[in-house]
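Memo to structure team: turn this sequence into structure tokens by end of day. - J.P.
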Amino acid sequence: MKRNLEPAFNMMPWHHQAAAALSRHMYLKSFGTMLFIGVFFGAYFYLLKFPSYPSTVMPFTRLDRMIGFVPQTLPLYLSLWIYVSLPPALLLTRRELYGYALSISATCISGLIIFYFWPTVVPAAHIDWSRYPDMDFLKNMDASGNACPSLHVTTAVFSGIWLHHLLRRFGAPLWILIVNSAWCIGIVYSTMATRQHVVLDVLAGLALGVLAARLSLRLDVTGKSQNPPI
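Reply from structure team:
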């Protein structure tokens, strides 16, 4: 994706470019992200509580047994809501923001449509959740439905690919790209380690996230950036 950025902006250190992007349209980014998350959760929990068809229990595979239950990964699991806020925060123009909002909305709507026509639940984990109060709270809130594809994984992978693209656009060093990849992989892993999802949910979420991110970047959904003020 080619960008028509001013030479002076391109000559700035990558972290200065990122800081300049963060400072643009802060209110639109903040309130827009919160509104999107609120609307998404409204639809998500409605389908969770009122499935349209009988739910299918996803199978628990040998790989799931190998991964095991690791409650210490809960903070990593919850960090998704910070992670998904980063790509829109690093966009420069309103046109980019609107294009990104359209692409992530289409991705999430695709997942919700699947949940509507094919409700799924994760299998019983046979864990005494009362021994893990934080996990018990998450299980009571999120229940076990809307399992496949894992939209937790989908949105993490979508955000990770976009973050990689934006960081490279700023000329970020390799270690930042590695940190981004590690964070994304950690979130994906945590969905299984917290027993929120099984491997098949994760694979489906990966497929949807990669497809949506690659398609949105190939179609250049954000349009051509205008020259940012220095």
